[in-house]
Amino acid sequence: MNRMGKAVTLVNQPNNVQNFYPADDNWEMKQFPFVASTAIDEGCAVAPQITSNDVTGYVTKMWAENANGADFLGILAEPIKSTDGDYAVAGKMKGVWVPKNKEALAYFKVGAGTFTKADVFRTVEIHSDAKSLAVDTAGKGARIMEYIDSTHGICKFSLPETETA
């Protein structure tokens, strides 16, 4: 059974929504079980779902603050739409680009803030849309590694991870 066949974004190829996507060969495709009834765009950052300070066994859209163990897991490689036949199914398997190491680079778009070359090496939050960076908000979402233009850059998600009891 080829569980990798559902992914629609190739490595080093921009996806059609211009969200996060792999920028080098340090990514691998894996399948993870996702929460029920949550639409998530292709290219969104995803993380383990946390309920009452504990993991649920499912993956969901990553929120701006990666607290209580909801660390970055990867980049969703296929959209989850409300019109999907398995939309309301908990545990549906979806393709996720997962970094092979802490040096994996990803393209990003700016979701909030003014982005300049001076922002390179800044650590910032993932924007509340989970598909871009809030480049003026210090945080532990991603480290900016390269400036491309005022709306795009390259980052890595190699920041310290939280721990769950």
Describe the structure.
The chain is mostly beta strands and 165 residues long. The chain has a domain at 26-99. The protein is built from no helices and eleven strands. The strands form two sheets. Strands 7-9-8-10-11 form a five-stranded mixed beta barrel. Strands 2-6-5-3-4 form a five-stranded antiparallel sheet, with no helix packed on it. The termini are far apart.
Strand content: 35-45%
* Helical/strand content category: mainly beta
Give Rg in angstroms.
15 Å
The count of DSSP E runs of length 2 or more, i.e. the number of strands, is: 11
Strand order of the largest sheet: 7-9-8-10-11
Could you give a short account of the major beta sheet?
5 strands, mixed, barrel
The shape, in one word, is globular
Low-confidence stretches: 1-7
Number of helices: 0
Percentage of residues assigned to helices: under 10%
Summary tags:
165 residues, mainly beta, five-stranded mixed β-barrel, five-stranded antiparallel beta sheet, 40% strand, globular
Topology:
Layout: E1 21-22, E2 27-34, E3 45-51, E4 54-61, E5 74-76, E6 92-99, E7 106-112, E8 123-126, E9 133-138, E10 142-149, E11 152-156
Parallel strand pairs: 7-9
Antiparallel strand pairs: 1-7, 2-6, 3-4, 3-5, 5-6, 7-11, 8-9, 8-10, 10-11
